[in-house]
Input
Amino acid sequence: MRRSKLEPGLDDKLGGAMVRFELWRCHQCGQCTPVCPSRRHGGIQTREVMLRAHVGAIDLAADRQIWQCTMCNSCSERCQLGVDPAHVITLLREEAAARGNLPQHFREEAKLFISSGMSFPRTGLTRKMRKEFGLEDLSVTDETMEELRHILKATRLGRVKVE
Output
């Protein structure tokens, strides 16, 4: 397939990862799409996203379809050519988030994780449920939060604007 000029340098912006996934091997057989639970409910069209990523015709600053993926990896398991659409979508999401394209619910979860080390609120209900299941109450130590700050600084999540 010939590359489009709609998103020039997409491979460079993703650190060559799209090239390593050999998107040229995707011959648009469509086997990834019907196994997708999101697609069955009107969500992501995996084959279409793969095509747009391959030809560079995806606007990562505005695309909403990539956020409809449930990350179940069914598409990657189904791909007989080993292209790994789920990982490609993850890379597209990372670049989209870096450009400010991040749905509000992800933004809220990221804020909570960055501030508390947890990806869900610690409420009376969660404490009660943990107690009923015989689990200890969760707490995040200062040492853990320091490690989290180090990880955030070293990863792309630390560069995403969540405010």
Observations:
- Residues 1-6 have pLDDT under 50 and may be disordered.
- The first helix runs from residue 10 to 13.
